[in-house]
Amino acid sequence: MKSRTVQPIRRSSKGRNRPLYERESGKKRGIRYFDYNLLIVVIFLMCFGLVMLYSTSSYSAQAKFGNSMYYFSKQALISAICFVGMLVVAKIDYHLYAPFSVEIFLASMFLMALVRWSPLGVESYGSRRWIRLPGNMTLQPSEMMKVAVILLIPYILCKMGNQITTGKGFLKVTACGVLAACSVFYLTDNLSTAVIVLAITMSMIFVVHPKTVPFVGAALAGIVVFLIGAQILIANFADSDNFRMRRILAWLQPGEYASDGNYQVTQALYAIGSGQFFGKGLGNSTQKMIIPEVQNDMILSIVCEELGVFGAIIILVLFAIMLYRLMFIAQNAPDMYGALVATGIFAHIAVQVILNIGVVTKVLPTTGITLPFISYGGTSVMFLMVEMGIALGISTKIKIIGE
Question: Quick one: which of 9, 96, 128, 138 has the fewest CB in 10 Å?
Answer without folding.
Answer: 96
